Predict the 3D structure of the following.
Amino acid sequence: MRALLDDPDLRRFTRVPDPPPDGFAEGWLARYEAAEGCAGFAAEDAGGAFLGLALAVSIDAEAGEIELGYIVAPEARGRGVATALLRALTRWAFDAAAALRVVLLIDTENAASSRVAARCGYVREGVMRSVHLKQGRRIDQEVWSLLPSDPASR
């Protein structure tokens, strides 16, 4: 986790503080281990090498809505890992978490992540302008969604 936090893309495109404060990695993991309103899964290859994280960042069980996210380790990028992570996480959201709407929030400058969303059948709904990301930094953010009735959800 600490090595992942050194990745400039992770620090640019996620809500992880930049720079992460001391103890951030441990607190971040503890949040997902507690699994209160969120869920997280680590991905490894057949040899046990860390590939990335698949995250249900926010779960609103009453509304049936889940915000998903994925982080791919720099050394695993360009190999289809993000697409595989998002497909597996989406399946989990619909099957295990009974989601009625799954959402991705993607920085408009993160073209690679937008390609993954499109590849997985998500529908780009539009752009929220000047959204607070972190530490006074504002971005334009794409909203992507998938519903159980969408063809890609099956």
